[in-house]
Predict the 3D structure of the following.
Amino acid sequence: MAASLAQSIQGPFFIGLTMNIFLYGVTTMQVYLYFTKYKIDSLWLRTLIVILYLAETFNCAISIYYIYNTLVTHFGDEANLLSGSWAFTADALLTGAISGAVQHFFAWRVYVLTENVFIVAAIVLCSLANMAGSLSATISMATTSLALLPNLGIEVTTWLVGAVLADMIIAASLVWHLRKHKQFYPALTSTINRILRMTIQTGVLTTIVAIIDLACYLTIVSNLSPSHLIFSMTLSKLYTNCMLSTLNARGAWKYDGSSEGEVSHGRSNHPGVSTQPRSRFVVMSHDP
């Protein structure tokens, strides 16, 4: 019986941990590239990257501790397989906090580009719902056994739906703004298209994983086989890597040829076409 419980409950956690550690390696490489290439970014942004990396490191450490403590230290202890622990519940809290921090960063970027407070407010509210849901789920799991995971539907739904909505609003607002202003930069069409592709890809990735995570929780966890942990364990790393990949990709967003000078000085070859939005576009391709 203990073996079947370990397989059904700790198995998905172990698979998710393996993927989590792999993505941590990608995160480490991204952080190294960032601090190597962008040494003049704002202090607050560099501090945020350090905090996120330390949080991801702590997340990996406590997850390794949990699986070792459960399957090695307490080997054969069936009761321990169902008992929650601080190391297990802390993963939900860290995931919510990291995803919320990344979403707030993109909310700031959306504000700088669009100056639309209503869009930013919607992103922040959804992100706060994401963080509140993860905190509530953490508190509930800390006071119950793993057998009661199906009873956390409201907390988990609030957490993941908030994250999905925030990601969708971020991606949609950035795509809308960039497509709207492509006409001001005919020489930069390929550059803007690359930014659009990256915006969609990063937003869609976290959205899809969060939706799969929620679907697995709602449909499978009732059988005490929480396969949603496979996806939940990777969410925080995906958010961090999406943010870092966006920052590191700035080096590839170069202006093209002779048009560089004209665009950079706010001039246009097209009479009647205003170049006023230029300063907000540059935020996407230069230092925040």
In short: The chain has ten helices and no strands. Residues 255-287 have pLDDT under 50 and may be disordered.
